[in-house]
Fold this protein.
Amino acid sequence: MSEASLPYQIEDLAPARAARRVSGESRLVQFVMVAVSLAFLSLFLFLPLISVFVEAGARGWHAYREAILEPDALAAIRLTLFVAAVAVPFNVIFGLAAAWAIAKFEFRGKSLLISFIDLPFSVSPVISGLVFVLLFGAQGYFGPWLAANDIKIIFAVPGILLATIFVTFPFVARELIPHMQSLGSADEEAALTLGASGWRTFLTVTLPNVKWSLFYGVLLCNARAMGEFGAVAVVSGRIRGLTNTMPLHVEILYNEYMGAAAFAVASLLAGLALVTLVLKTVLEWRFADAIAASRRH
């Protein structure tokens, strides 16, 4: 080995040594940090989740099947899926429009719009439900007019939809806004210069560029829509077979000392969440290179 090549080799080793210094905690420290993380996850995530499935099957398959196929439980499942099927597309449309406006244009009130998007994160879901009661309830601002025209929102499915949409609408927008801002407008400007229309530019340039952020936002929105309790509990009236979603049905069963049935429905709700998580993980593993490339763009 020549002396001339030695400085270059030392320089090549310098970044690696610097990286080791940055994360160069002792093995004991690393072990303690990992152990604390695993203990926290086990205590607050894995054990409660496992206990739900264990309690759900404690009385056997027959009791589990009866709890799931009971008419009120089926009605709660159908309503939960219906609410998610309506709320998620609505929030996709809103999220894309809001992110496009915020990331691609400069206008007065831009910061105020961002603050409004974040509002459901800072307001209790129960307060959100009460707001809709004040607006559309029998004694609310629009209550008399709604009653005169035989339109029912509170203690009916429309109220559940409004409450769910309100508490979930930040998720898609908040995933898309920073990604669109990082992408800039160069690709859209190039497409428009080449003669593409606004819609074609959006469908063939913007949407493919943000598809993974959109996908994550949809997953978060769907999970929150199916699991929302506070706002829905206020506006639903908890009418069995009509306005009970799965979380509300679980609470009613548990309060009536029907623990096995409550855990059976809860396990189904947890299973839907796990399916969503598995789907996200599989797609991340399958398209890891494409996701990394889109985030580097």
The chain is about 80% helix and 0% strand. Confidence is low (pLDDT under 50) at residues 3-8. The two ends are 41 Å apart (CA to CA).
